[in-house]
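Researcher: Let's do a round of design. I'm pasting the structure tokens now; please hold your answer until I've finished.
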């Protein structure tokens, strides 16, 4: 009977040597996460790593293409038809500044920032936590300024003030959560000292003078800016045994990191590509989302470098013979909220990389649903390479659900399945992952790249 049953195992059953390897990869990962809190920063980090190790010195067999500083495709040419593709998204839920953000509250004479949240967030989680501003300002004369305020120890922080519990009974406690925390109140305080030379909006004027003195920007310059509020804290070991990592943006930068590391360390036989894209958290729309035609640019370049004609017929044939892991996380069973899961088909932290056969919601609507043949092939690859894996779905049938970029890759007739670690507190400002699952995900991606 034991041979017939499928028993879940913990990654930590593999012993002390395994623990050392997993913890070593985790140290690399934490440094990456602390450097990469926005999609632009991930692309810049990848480019620096490629140049640091001399990735492009091997002639035309290796190349990368960047799309609008928010997407990147990295390619190693190989033999045979089609390619091995791992695709992840590098945007995360956050709070964006509006295009005219600064305003002064006349009653309190405090200056705050108008904001608009990005992606699926629980709004109350973003109140009373340390926030930093990351992003870019493009001035009228074309000058570009990169902004990062709040990460250095001597930088000021930004905080969205919540309501004290003494006054919250009617305003918050008696309302539904989505009514108690209004999006229009996700506004951080940025100043309170007045410019005494001004007659009106004295505090706002003071803030504008400071911005001009330090960055040379006016209020109008903020209209052509992309500024994001992200948690200012660092990635940290979590738990008395240090087996977990707490960090902002692990959905989905944990997959971006492991995919790129596996790509760089693999000995590929077939052509391999890592594709990192933007806008997944808001539907994959826009020029930098997975729905964009950018996906075809590296494919066309592959065909050209292989000496083939890059017409639509060859592009379609190439993609039909390709295989893809849509590298994205799943929601691990939270021991405090188990009722939202169907436990036999849920994913668990510390149980290895998760294969999510289908996504979507309520009857697999808007789903990508992988084939049994592709799953069978991946099982064999993972087992042959000692990769601990599990299956998972996101919540009970009518309780949960969600989407990834898999369906936009599948529309090109590419074999694709979602594959990544399970994490706790997904979409919160401080998500939790397992160092063992991080390592198993790296191993899974490397085995995939090196497979036939």
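Researcher: That's everything. Go ahead.
Model: Designed sequence:
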């Amino acid at each position: 009977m034991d041979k017939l049953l499928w028993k879940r195992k913990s990654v930590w059953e593999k012993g002390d040597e395994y623990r050392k390897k997993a913890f070593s990869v985790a140290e690399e990962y934490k440094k990456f996460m602390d450097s990469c809190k926005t999609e632009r920063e991930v692309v810049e980090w990848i480019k620096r790593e490629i140049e640091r190790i001399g990735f492009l010195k091997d002639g035309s067999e290796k190349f990368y293409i960047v799309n609008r500083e928010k997407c990147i495709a990295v390619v190693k040419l190989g033999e045979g038809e089609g390619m091995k593709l791992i695709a992840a998204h590098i945007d995360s839920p956050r709070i964006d500044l509006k295009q005219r953000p600064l305003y002064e509250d006349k009653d309190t004479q405090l200056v705050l920032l108008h904001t608009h949240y990005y992606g699926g967030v629980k709004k109350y989680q973003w109140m009373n936590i340390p926030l930093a501003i990351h992003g870019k300002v493009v001035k009228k004369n074309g000058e570009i300024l990169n902004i990062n305020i709040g990460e250095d120890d001597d930088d000021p922080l930004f905080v969205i003030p919540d309501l004290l519990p003494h006054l919250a009974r009617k305003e918050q406690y008696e309302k539904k959560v989505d009514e108690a925390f209004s999006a229009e109140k996700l506004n951080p305080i940025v100043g309170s000292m007045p410019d005494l030379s001004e007659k009106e909006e004295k505090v706002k004027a003071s803030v504008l003078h400071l911005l001009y003195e330090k960055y040379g920007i006016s209020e109008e310059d903020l209209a052509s800016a992309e500024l994001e509020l992200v948690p200012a804290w660092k990635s940290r070991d979590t738990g008395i045994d240090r087996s977990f990592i707490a960090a902002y943006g692990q959905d989905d930068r944990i997959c971006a990191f492991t995919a790129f590391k596996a790509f760089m360390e693999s000995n590929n036989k077939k052509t391999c590509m890592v594709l990192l894209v933007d806008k997944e958290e808001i539907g994959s729309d826009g020029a930098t989302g997975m729905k964009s035609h950018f996906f075809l640019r590296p494919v066309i370049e592959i065909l050209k470098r292989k000496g083939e004609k890059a017409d639509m017929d060859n592009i379609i044939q190439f993609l039909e013979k390709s295989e893809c892991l849509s590298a994205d996380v799943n929601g691990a069973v939270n021991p405090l909220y188990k009722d939202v899961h169907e436990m036999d088909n849920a994913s668990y932290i510390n149980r290895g990389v998760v294969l999510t056969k289908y996504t979507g919601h309520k009857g697999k609507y808007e789903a990508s649903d992988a084939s049994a043949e592709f799953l069978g092939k991946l099982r064999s690859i993972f087992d042959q390479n000692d990769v601990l894996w599990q299956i998972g779905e996101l919540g009970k049938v009518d309780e949960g659900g969600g989407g990834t970029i898999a369906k936009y890759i599948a529309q090109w007739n590419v074999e694709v399945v979602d594959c990544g670690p399970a994490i706790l507190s997904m979409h919160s400002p401080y998500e939790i992952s397992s160092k063992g699952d991080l390592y198993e995900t790296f191993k899974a991606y490397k085995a995939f790249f090196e497979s036939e």
